[in-house]
Specification:
The complex is a heterodimer. By secondary structure, chain A is mainly α. Chain A contains 19 helices and two strands. Chain A has a two-stranded antiparallel sheet. About 2% of the residues of chain A have low confidence. By secondary structure, chain B is an alpha/beta fold. Helix content of chain B is 52%, strand content 8%. In chain B, the strands form two sheets. A five-stranded parallel sheet of chain B has the order 2-1-3-4-6. A two-stranded parallel sheet of chain B has the order 5-7. The longest helix of chain B is centred in the middle third of the chain and has 30 residues. Chain B is globular, with a radius of gyration of 21 Å. The chains are: A mainly alpha, B alpha/beta. The interface between A and B is medium-sized, with 25 and 23 residues.
């Protein structure tokens, strides 16, 4: 089973129905069972890695809360253990997983899916308990649910323990307005992911795969479009998760704040995958400042590097991270001084697009070849790869609609709908038909599942 | 809350009904060639479409027989009943229905391909979803699966975690409960394909006309060229069919024998690259298997040589180009004349 497949969505609705009909006191245990079930349906082996992470970190947090004298060393040890698990999964078990691998899109990682997100949650909680910013959670069941809460386990957002524990304790099935808002957000996410992102990928991939015979300027234009795809893919999944959680009375934090409208790369970095950026700011940045003082250049490079390594510990992501670091530096010292907001917005997307070759390929040489095509194919005439279809037209209409809605600061299906009741229902019917039809696409890929 | 949930469900169900209505009423635009050919042959089997001749030779097999065997070159009065995914189970039931309707059949050419013997015999999901097998036939199959201690499985969802706990009969009933939903999902897929390939504007009734003119034979349209060995061939470690598959295969032959119909069993050609990918031992197991059947049923003509054609003769990993298919049929014709079959 893949996340955001038809069977996954049916399971989600089954879960929401159970939450509604079963007594409130069963919410935690029901959600935990459901989360473990969903994760094991993705790949049965996942359950072993997830339960190991839960048990190791539960025990670690317990010992940290006891304030043993060697606490600092023990905290370091726990962080090393967690990071080792992460590196082990990414570097050895899923080492070959890339967006393009041997000429085919392959982002289907099933084993250890989402480990980057939930392991960071565990590390964050360990540090919070060590610094007395949070308390040890005595209930293993609640702690397990914090790590494995299924709407956000696979792609985030990375949540703080106290924020979720408090909500688990006081969970109440939402009122109609809240429920509708959650549902609306969920459908909005489906539109972004299933109708827009998946179709956009079918346009982009043939161009990227055939880059050596494609015009440089066209490629230069398409790489930022790839950023648009990544945004719709990732944020569509997040909208779905936020919607599902809200439908059962849990509020998760926003993970995107219109990053494609950022004025500069630092702003882009802060508005993309917000929970991860905040995690770096809260748990890594203070140490970096302590070590490097006001040597901002090194701090930016290190932050970029760490975010690259968080994605994957490969040469490509190391370089990708370094480039991100340099772009942060560039923005901090130069771009932010430009007067025109429009110029800064365009530049931040272009710079984002510039990093794509290292993001999509697993091999350094493949990425390099794409950069070479960007520079050397100026004289080659642009040519169409594949044919334009009705799906592309539908996808484009929704892409524009989503942009308009998000530009107005909303993330809601209702913003699409006409005011008249009849037209509203007809539009809803069309949207549902399209979602169901596009969901049957067998080649669905979540670009961030591999992290 | 109740009102909102009911309204949402109503919209979802309306959407599903709408898609089904569209797909079924405009099936020649929305559905694919395979579906339309399936439906045509279903009509032949249940008598809704009557052949305009009395067939003397019947060809059975899977999609390879459908594509690779332009049977009019073998005999003017032949009919190619081959269907995509036809396993020995389907072959048995469909042959029975066909012979009952057209007793003029004197010879049968059974084109076997390794796939449906090696990939542990389950019926093709489309046989159930498109109603090619009726409930009693599938029930008989489920009983036989239980008798032979195999797990009956016809639909993809059955690989689920809890499904393994169910008996063959329970699975069968679940399948039939699932059929309307399965058909709806298929219709979603057809729509998606139309959105991606712009095939809303293409009337596919010509495919059925081609099948009628070809007396059951049909060339697949989207042929992209041979790119490598047959995609599943690397999984085939040995040729060791389930005993139930063999049982149905023999039962089918015995059925023909009882009706005094001659049977020739011929291997569909495979490409050189697929042949080279076969694991050691597969070929000898294959020969041995058919030799055993030949010993048991000496009156049946069995050609147990794997026919290997050069890669250039293939338009996909398994389908022959038109000229190559003609060559194959003529070679079979020659062989049959030579063997006085």
């Amino acid at each position: 089973m893949e996340s955001l497949s038809l069977s996954y969505i049916l399971l989600v609705f089954f879960y929401i129905t159970l939450v509604k009909i079963l007594p409130q006191r069963l919410f935690i245990i029901l959600t935990l069972i459901f989360s473990l079930m969903v994760y094991s349906l993705i790949d049965l082996n996942n359950i072993f890695i997830l339960t190991s992470v839960i048990l190791i970190n539960y025990a670690g947090t317990y010992l940290l809360a006891k304030k043993i004298p060697e606490n600092r060393i023990f905290l370091s040890l726990m962080i090393v253990i967690n990071l080792s698990i992460l590196v082990l999964i990414k570097n050895y078990i899923n080492a070959d997983v890339s967006f393009i691998n041997n000429g085919a899109h392959s982002s289907r990682i099933l084993f250890g899916m989402g480990c980057s997100f939930y392991i960071l949650q565990c590390i964050g909680h360990l540090i919070d308990v060590y610094y007395d910013k949070d308390e040890f959670q005595h209930s293993l069941i609640k702690y397990s649910l914090y790590v494995s809460f299924f709407p956000q386990m696979i792609l985030g957002p990375i949540e703080r323990a106290y924020y979720l524990f408090d909500q688990f304790d006081h969970q109440k099935f939402p009122n109609l307005e809240e429920f509708k808002a959650g549902f609306s957000r969920m459908v909005f996410g489906l539109i972004k992911k299933v109708i827009v992102a998946n179709t956009l990928l079918t346009i982009l991939m043939p161009f990227i795969e055939a880059h050596s015979s494609q015009n440089s300027l066209l490629l230069f234009f398409l790489l930022p479009v790839f950023m648009v795809f990544l945004y719709f893919d990732f944020s569509g999944n997040i909208d779905f998760s936020l919607g599902v959680a809200r439908m059962v009375g849990i509020k998760l934090n926003e993970n995107f704040d219109n990053p494609l409208l950022s004025r500069g790369y630092i702003e882009f970095f802060n508005r993309w995958n917000i929970s991860f950026t905040n995690w770096l700011k809260d748990y890594v940045l203070p140490s970096l400042i302590k070590i490097f003082g006001n040597k901002q250049f090194i701090i930016f490079i290190t932050i970029g590097l760490l975010s690259g390594l968080w994605h994957q510990t490969t040469i490509n992501f190391t370089i990708w991270g370094m480039i991100i670091g340099f772009l942060l530096v560039l923005d901090h010292y130069y771009i932010k001084n430009f007067q025109s907001d429009f110029f800064k917005r365009v530049l931040s997307i272009l710079l984002g697009g510039f990093t794509v070759p290292f993001f999509v390929f697993s091999e350094f040489n493949d990425s390099l070849a794409l950069y070479k095509s960007l520079c050397s194919n100026l004289m080659i005439l642009p040519k169409m790869e594949g044919q334009l279809s009705i799906s592309h037209g539908i996808s484009f209409i929704f892409l524009v609609l989503v942009f308009i809605v998000e530009f107005r600061g909303k993330r809601d299906l209702n913003e699409f709908l006409p005011k008249s009741k009849v037209f509203k229902n007809i539009t809803l019917l069309i949207v549902f038909v399209l979602i169901m039809v596009f969901l049957t696409d067998d080649g669905q890929i979540n670009a961030y599942n591999r992290f | 809350m109740k009102g909102f949930v009911l309204k949402s469900l109503l919209i979802v169900f309306s959407a599903m009904i709408l898609i089904n209505l569209f797909a079924d009423s405009l099936s020649s635009f929305i559905k694919d060639d395979e579906y339309l050919i399936n439906q045509h042959k279903k009509n032949v089997l249940n008598g809704k479409y009557k052949l305009k001749f009395d067939p003397e030779i019947l060809i059975i097999g899977d999609c390879l027989a459908l594509n690779n065997f332009p049977n009019t070159l073998l005999h003017e009065k032949s009919y190619n009943l081959a269907l995509p995914g036809m396993t020995p189970f389907e072959a048995y039931f469909h042959s029975k229905k066909f012979i009952k309707r057209y007793p003029s059949v004197k010879k049968v050419v059974y084109l076997v391909s390794g796939a449906h013997f090696v990939e542990q015999g389950q019926i093709y999901s489309m046989s159930l979803l498109n109603g090619l097998l009726d409930f009693h036939e599938v029930q008989q199959l489920a009983d036989d699966f239980e008798k032979y201690n195999y797990a009956y499985q016809a639909l993809d969802y059955e690989e689920g975690l809890f499904y393994n706990l169910l008996s063959s009969k329970s699975r069968l009933y679940l399948d039939y409960l699932y059929v309307p939903l399965g058909r709806t999902f298929n219709n979603f897929r057809f729509f998606k394909r139309c959105f991606s390939d712009n095939c809303f504007f293409k009337d596919k009734r010509d495919f059925v006309k081609d099948t009628i003119n070809g007396k059951g034979h049909y060339f697949y349209e989207d042929q992209t060229g041979l790119v490598g060995p047959y995609k599943n061939i690397k999984r085939w470690s040995s040729f060791n069919p389930q005993s139930l598959v063999t049982h149905y295969f023999k039962k089918n032959i015995m059925f023909f024998k009882n009706k005094k119909i001659e049977v020739s069993i011929i291997q569909s050609p495979i490409s050189q690259v697929s042949y080279d990918s076969l694991k050691e031992g597969f070929y000898s197991d294959f020969r041995k298997y058919f030799e055993n059947i030949q010993n048991e049923l000496p009156e049946v003509y069995i050609n147990n040589q794997i026919k290997v054609y050069s890669n250039e003769m293939f338009s996909t990993d398994v389908y022959l180009k038109q000229e190559a298919a003609k060559k194959f049929v003529l070679s079979v014709k020659k062989m049959m004349n030579h063997e006085k079959l």
